[in-house]
Amino acid sequence: MACTVFDMCISLSGEDFHDAGLGSVTASVREGMGSILGAALDEAASIISHTSNATSMNLAFWTSAKPTAGGLPSDDYYSCLVAAEAASSRKQRYPSAHGSGSGSDDLILPENYAGYLKSYSKPDKVEEPPPPAARGSGGSRANTRGIGAPSPLRERAGLERKRKRDQARQYKSKMRSKVRQMLKKQAHRRLGLWRSRVLDGDRVPIYVSLDGIAYPRGRDAYVTQERDQKALTRMSVSEFGPNSCIVSPRALPYCQQYPPLTPVDLRFWHLPPNIVEAYRLSSGITGLYTWQADCLKTLLDCTLFGFEDQPVSPASHRPLDRPFKCGVYCAPTSGGKSLVAELIMLRRLLFRGLRGVYTLPYVSICQEKLQQLRRVWGDSGQSASLAALRIEAFHSNASVDKEGVIGGWTAGVDVALGTLEKVNGMVNRLVSQADSSTSNVGTVIIDELHMVGDEQRGHILELILLKLMLFATGRVTSASSGELYQLQVVCMSATLPSLDPLKSWLLEADVYTTEFRPVPLEYFVKVGPRLHSGDLDRVVRDIPLLQGDPDRITALIWEVAQEACSVGYDAASNATGVIVFCATKAWCEKTAVHVASTWPGVPWDLDDTMLRGRQQALDILRASPAGLCPTLEKSIPKGVAYHHSGLTMEERRVIETAFRNGHIHTLCATSTLAAGVNLPARRVIIRSLQVGISPLDASRLRQMCGRAGRAGFTGSNKGEAILCVKDDREARTAKDLINAQLTGLSSRLTGDLLTRALLEIICLKLVSRVDEIPGRFCSRLLRYHLQPDQESREGLQSEVSTCLEELEKDRFVKVNDGLITSTPLGEAVAFSSLKIEEASVVFRALRHASSRILLSSDLHLLSLVTPVRHDIPVHLEAYLNLYNAMAPDQRAVADRCGISEGFLNSCARRNTLLSRSTPVPVCHRKTPEEARAWQRQLVTHLRFYATLLLHHLLKGVPLPMLASTYKVNCGQIQQLQSTSTAFCGMVVGFCERLRWWALAAALTPLSEQLSTGAPSFVAEMTSKLSHVGLPVSWAIALHSAGLESVTAIAGSDTDTLHRILARAVSHQRGRPTQDFNNYLRETARNIIVGAQEVVNAQVAEILEEADECRASDDEESDGGSSSSSSPSTTSSGSGSRDRQQGLVEELGGDANSLLDGLTPEEINSLAAA
């Protein structure tokens, strides 16, 4: 049945909940709600009971404001929110409706009640009540009290509130003192100090020496610490505080032992010896190229990094106290760009303690970079011999994300790797919350800067750089005292055109460019059976003809394998890798089948190592959630596979690993492989000058050809790129592409994206006045520097003014006397990362659901977090079949969401597929309003189709069955799942900003389920163990076998886990082979280790909380006259902790947020007090 508990929740105030008995309400409806509603109702009840004065009126208002039959008007759907905001402000200004009576003693909750302890309304003075009359001396107290005097109960309540406010002030003062002591003990370096990590459930202190070696606590650690202290004293480096950074690294003991070095030696840059050795062992890097050394000299301020006696770069005449320092360099693929940025970040981290953010475009590159940096730099949980730096990745598939911190970034993380969307959230936290948790962020690396011109995500990258520039320059402008804030931004790319616009845009950035490529790359053009040079000036050779290969594609691949066999490379080397780029996904699969069917074979095909590797890849794919594709089953035994977005993440990971190991020699892929994955190859073949339906451009061509001839791989002494064309006309086009100059950069901050960027800048308080917009906002846009003429710049300023008017019209901002302030709705849109058009759809859906939500299943909740835009093709035949097969409770949800069978039938008569580009029927074009109504109905039906798919996915329906039912491929389902996870977080943030606590609490559990695609009973397990690749089917098998939690898995043994996994796999593929059996055992061992790491992290958090409580107890025992006066303060340590925690929760604060709203200068003044 359809249960509408939210009708009850949002219509009752806090007092009504207490009177009605929330426990009985919870007990009566919990049976039909499922796990989501249980957690949601408990949290909603707690929130509403604590926020009755501030939120009951708003919730009751939304309940009373019933939506009209046609929905909210498109131009005034925020009027209800504005009215509620005005009513809330009136209530806060006049807390009692009875004048200045006793009602004015009520505690006035701040606006950001559920956020942080920032500001409080000054309470009215409460006079001491007269002492009560003695018993029997004059009758009862009720008879002696005058008419209209406050009752004793009300007086005692006022005194109790006053006492709690006094305790809150004292507690806040004590916490500021605690933070002051913490800041004094903060070391601005990562060498020569004690750190801690959790191992096997225990916190293990380690000492990181000045040599960059981590020692466990013991004699060696203490002896090393004493030696390092003497060295730091000689260097005039203090143990803690502002003077604890290492300004002159060349004075370090290990640098004194280095012989005279040149800049191409890694030791010249003062790296610890063990990190230099780690670079050699893991990446084969023994030194720098000349261009890398020159680039480091250009980008580094030598006088600040210990090179006082070295000649500085020409750019060093600029002032060294620039708050925003940016370096941009461009080098070809495989030129070693990443190493330059890594050295800059590592030096600032080791010697100054400045944490770093590494921005990467795709999730796959984040995961690859995470493993590479952990191997080289060390990690507190990975290696005890390196510098114990903690490196984490933050993206849609990461399991370490936590709420309430900087995009999941805790203070213990030294380097954060993130995609554009995650880094944008980190920057928002950095800008809006400049406190002790973000003041030591000093380095930001931007990889693939050319993506600023990308149509889909380029605006995010430009907005990140815009906010960093305004933030850094704004902090130095408002600084009155304290240390100067300096932010170093490093941008790199392989396909950047002229760097002059970027130099002026990024505040006179230091730029460097080179054409050096360690492995030469040669271009060829294939015309018919002949291979021509890239300039078409000569015929290189005729391509041999193989049986069944008229296009001679297989022959071009077979040549590489034959050459490698003649040289004598190992069978498992990657010297034979060939990547064939195709225009479409279907063409990729056809090419893979063609090459496999016409492959003549080489001696390596019979090698035992090669055969076992290919068979293991087949076994793993067969046991994956999507099963083994028939095409891959035919092609992989021949060493051929395909790679495109239609594959699941598990399939892509297996194929990429097999290609790197040399078990697969040919990979047929789309152009997305060139930018998303770092797969080196000996030869690259481009089968068409088209990418989908678009022509191939010079930038994408260089990205594709850059996969050939990568440095550091076996057989990579040269690279070859072959462009296949049909005739002489296409050959000339290919020649022009090879020699073409890169097109200029373009800005994507136009139209609605520019409006949203302005809104975000205003909400972050980077611009607060109208007259600041031309000089502070417009002049920092990339378009301003790409359009040097005055007329274009004036047009840009006019466009920005129009954007501000639209924001004011839609009530996102308010403009009074030239002062710009954001409204709660504007902040909700800005900080939730929703687009403006998406926010309007989400707002309507949430407001409509708040009056009556159906909780018989999670279908209605899923409809609220399904992305407004998605790439799932909607087949009307499948849609109608699903609609007709719905259960009654699901049909009620569909009706509540506005799904109409008549609309589907009318569309099915004209189309077989539905999309956002479906034209409006003629019968609905009579008026613009009617056409817009039909388009809104189309969006609703497209969105609900994806909701049904997600609903079945979370019910545990296998991916192949889902793909067959909805007529999509498994990769598209996983892409929808990933997008929905991010969108769910946006909607939850949107609700929290609007103080819709009940809806936020109900939607929050869906985020974990969507991130794993697992049923609720294994969602937590799958989410926490996603870093070890635990599939949903295996998690269900472990749960069925009795291992129902991560703790249970951590306490299990390898044999037990291996037995469970083998039994689960046997249902899919029969009896496993010996090689696959070994793989399962190794996987079981990795799952147990991953579970132990998760448990260790949880224990570390508990130990940190215990330390905080112990410190609070110590401070409490030292005294406080007011605290000791109350009976509650004389209780035990446990009672003291409970009292303090209850006090903080009641006043809406958090112990870690006491510095919110303070500038770094104010924090420095606190530390120096």
From TrEMBL:
SUPFAM superfamilies given in the database record: P-loop containing nucleoside triphosphate hydrolases, Sec63 N-terminal domain-like
Catalytic activity: ATP + H2O = ADP + phosphate + H(+)
Keywords assigned: ATP-binding, Helicase, Hydrolase, Nucleotide-binding
Domain of life: Eukaryota
Nucleotide-binding recorded as keyword: yes
Biased composition (Basic residues): 161-181
Low complexity bias locations: 1119-1135
Protein name: DNA polymerase theta
